[in-house]
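Me: I keep going back and forth on a fold encoding question. No explanation is needed for now; the record alone will do.

Assistant:
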Amino acid sequence: MRLVFAGTPEPAVPSLARLVESPRHDVVAVLTRPDAASGRRGKPSPSPVARYALEHGIPLLRPSRPNSEEFVAELAALAPECCAVVAYGALLKEQLLAVPERGWINLHFSLLPAWRGAAPVQAAIAAGDTVTGATTFQIEPALDSGPVYGVVTETIQPTDTAGELLERLSISGAQLLATTLDGIADGSLTPVPQPADGVTIAPKITVEEARVRWDLPAHVVERRIRAVTPNPGAWSMIGDLRVKLGPVTVDEAADPLPPGAIQVGRKEVRVGTGSQPVVLGVVQAPGKKPMNAADWARGARLDGTRRAE
């Protein structure tokens, strides 16, 4: 099929690469978000999907208003039979959705109708789900509600961060998307409506929401930190310092500590929660490199009066 691929972040790249390499499809253009500021200097840089397109000589579309009449006409001029979407990052309205004859097919990183929205992997980890997956479905105006073509499942490991789980799903999902488009092309696949029950929503996680709440039970704190690793990244205030925190472990054998209380040992740093303490892993102070929590605590000269808040 003649395809336009829409995507922006790194997890979308395996799907784009798979379709570019497929002898059954022709990726005539790539649609991605405009260059965004990155790094300390805030210099605009292309998205990971844009970089792949530029490196492989694929025409690149970066509209600031993808639903504008001008861009709808530009996409129509390319005459795509179908558009494939993986984490593009913008809502698509009816006029744009109507351009390709076979519609827009989205790869979403959850088992729909669970965790519709921008942060399905993070939501699944934070909720304590043990199984997740990826789903291909036909996009319609409502959020992630279209009929489903196919799914793959993935076990959530006890120590998975969102980044690790998303990396695995991006690979298995790329295969699912390619298989789905093959089936649409040869007419062997028919989408099935999503069930009305079991709908959950996973909105984008803000930086403020990634702040650790030490009053919650330890297992909730542990899951929430993994869910926002690496992005947007868990953090806490310790004194007047805002520090980033990597994954922690629950210390079932330790005596309870008040929520936010810090206990510094020779080799470990524990912080109290609403139940058992957790042992800090990696800590990153402002302007510093990530380091082992015990080494950081010695350098920061923590005493018993400091608290995590």
